[in-house]
Hints:
It is a single chain. The chain contains 17 helices and 14 strands. With 393 residues, it is an alpha/beta fold.
Amino acid sequence: MISRTAEATLLRYAKGFPVVCISGPRQSGKTTLARQAFPKKPYLSLEDPDIIALARTDPRGLLGNYPHGLILDEAQYVPELFAYLKTAVDADPVPGKYIITGSQQFHLLEKISESLAGRAALLTLLPFSVQELRDAGQLLKDPFDCMLNGLYPPIYDRDVSPQDWYAQYITLYIERDIRSLINVKDLGQFQSFVKMCASRTGQLLNLSALAADCGITHNTAKAWVSVLETSGIVCLLRPYHRSYGKRLVKTPKLHFLDPGLACRLLGITQREQLFLHPNRGNLFESFITAELLKARLNAGLAPNLFFWRDNTGNEVDLIQEDGDTLQAIEIKSGQTFSSGFFEGLKKWVQFTGSPSTDCQIVYAGDISLSREGIRVISWNQIGQVPTASSSSL
């Protein structure tokens, strides 16, 4: 079994909060993590019809049957249970008593903020990280093979091809579960929308253009992107807001959080297709962005990732903020080191006065080195990109 970096954070939260909630997209490993971290806790799945019926008809009795707590899987299916959890932890606020998981984050967060504010800690779990696969000896050697394979746990835990698994994931989760949450009646239109989003990964999000291409309204496109974001399929990277003497772009960037899913939605199934694809650079940028986001979430840190771009086209792919410390990170899909990699970072140093030692380059090559005071890091060493809160995430 592949160890999860987030387990240490989960155990830390369980020492200080009566309820710990693990949220994230379906199949990201939430249940496995909860049961691995707390092997002696009883486990109930709220996807089981019998358990759902019991939780709805006798929630007090259900919780009372487990006086020392339990793991409640997919808790968002019985939202009325949260009020009884509040009563239970107020009566007996033992740290780590209840571990709950949930896939639909917007419903889960709403119930936590309503009923469990101050009593619960939230851990967001995304699919495997490059570092986790590397530590387990399961990381593929080629970055583009790794991207095509994707990083969802079932691909590494089961005897299933990535192509078969993603086909089912798209059909059963994205096209069924997510679509039902927003009451989409035209499946074809929603399918087209998700694919159009994949074609825009790593790019500025122009909602008006996206809506026009899909034949929907601007507000509908905004709502659908929001659902994909809260479901853990995409993230919106906000522009860094400090002004350095030039007008800054205010539009967010759209990033798919799993490269395998984005590739399947774009019809990319072979390494050669990916390597020659016009969106290769954007797909690789989203891949690395997701890796740095995972590192922060696994450590229990605020996301605090941005990008920087002015209206003349000067850009840095990622800005990582920790207190007063800023790290500028450029992401390059080339496998051969080039002096051109430094251009965006040089502009950043010039505009901000930041030291070059706070700059990093992550690229698709295998060799890590340092040049002109800037660290150049191989994609498979992404865990070496530091934050102010951790010297080696």
